[in-house]
Amino acid sequence: MLKLDHITVIAPSLAEGVSHVRTCLDLDVPFGQRHAYMGTCNHLLQLGGTVYLEIVALDPKADGPGRPRWFGLDDREKVRSDWDEGRRLRGWVARTDAIDAVIAGRRDIFGDKVALPTVDSSFDFAIPDDGSLPLDGAAPSIIDRRGKPRAIATIADLGARLRAFTLEHPDPAAVEALYRTLTVDRPPAVRRGPKLRYRAQIETPAGIKELT
Question: FRET pair for 41, CA 20 to 30 Å: which of 21, 66, 99, 177?
Fold first, then answer.
């Protein structure tokens, strides 16, 4: 079974990502880490239980990883276009303990398993050949931490809790069918909409807020 691991704001820059979340949630999300093996960096926020929010962007101080980056971040024009359209909460990551079984026969959606970091790897992540989001973000990215849970205590807890997560999509039936095939626990609720768009209802110390 796949389980919701985290939701992702994919930003043209970390500053823009942090500013957007501040506007939506009235919270300043602290810096998380740099991914030298991907040339990206993030800010992280707990959302209750083992679920968290990631704001991810290219790391301007990093060298290129020598392969396509995750979350479609190499396609800067698309990242900017999606951002300017207000599609900023752009995807989600599901965790599994059996990544090979999940991606078997679904390489056209998820790509190949990549062991990360490149040296002394500790987890596996499925990345399409061009680094794009699976099904443009309608399908989750897949992570396998090899039986080791994410150290949630190292992520800032500012009192935010995920209460609802929805996806608007032109073909909701097809997306729901995929989630059933994948056996996803806590997938986003899928509704019909003109274009792929995620919304998250998040309880904060200042009340319920919406992140888009």
Answer: 99
Look at residue 186 in the predicted model and tell me its pLDDT: 86
Cβ atoms within 10 Å of 29's Cβ, excluding its own: 23
Q: Which residue type sits at 162?
A: L
- The Cα-based distances of 50 to 1, 20, 53, 152 in angstroms read 15, 23, 10, 6
In whole angstroms, give the CA distance from residue 212 to residue 195: 13
Of the chain, the end-to-end C-alpha distance in Å amounts to 27
* Residue-level pLDDT at 64: 84
Predicted confidence at residue 95, as pLDDT, reads 97
| Rounded-to-integer distance, Cα 44 and Cα 31, Å | 6
Structure tokens that stand for 160 in this block = 């935010």
Contact 125, 102 (CB under 8 A): no
Which of helix, strand or coil describes residue 8?
A: strand
> φ and ψ at 157, to 5 degrees?
-115, 105
Query: Which DSSP letter does residue 105 get?
Result: T
Residue 183 identity:
T
- In the predicted model, residues of the chain with pLDDT beneath 70 are none
pTM of the model: 0.95
